[in-house]
Design goal:
The chain is α+β, with helices and mostly antiparallel strands and about 110 residues long. The chain has one domain. It is about 40% helix and about 25% strand. The strands form two sheets. A three-stranded antiparallel β-sheet has the order 3-5-4. It has a two-stranded antiparallel sheet with strand order 1-2. A hairpin with a 4-residue loop joins strand 4 and strand 5. The radius of gyration is 13 Å and the shape is globular. About 30% of the residues are buried. It binds zinc ion (ZN).
């Protein structure tokens, strides 16, 4: 895949990351302080809307690193990212250095 494809992959993923940030803040807004959060798969596939239930503390941990994303197991794009954590319900992937990693950092909603 080219740099251009890397960019597209990164854009899709950062879009879903923003959606998930909104889900999380809504969650806080309800004052429920639920221990778990249902987020949307942050993979490169723009049509994927699979849901992942995970602990908020785990979500926060992933979000602390702008190059990390949460995906449904198997939704990793090996060329651009590697799996750093594998759990029953989801995988945490980290962008390999390059265009997609740069973009992931540029679009970090928390920076
Ligand atoms: Zn997916």
């Amino acid at each position: 895949m080219s740099d251009e494809q890397g960019r597209r992959v990164g854009l899709n993923e950062s879009l879903f990351r923003q959606v998930n940030e909104q889900i999380e803040s809504l969650n806080h807004g309800f004052g429920a302080d639920l221990p778990t959060l249902t987020v949307i798969c942050e993979c490169a596939d723009g049509d994927c809307a699979e849901r992942i239930e995970m602990a908020i503390s785990a979500y926060e941990q992933v979000r602390a690193d702008p190059r990390r994303y949460i995906v449904v197991p198997g939704h990793v794009v090996q060329e651009f990212e590697s799996i750093v954590e594998h759990t029953g319900g989801y995988d945490v992937v980290e962008k390999r250095p390059g265009e997609a990693a740069k973009l992931a950092e540029e679009t970090d909603p928390r920076s």
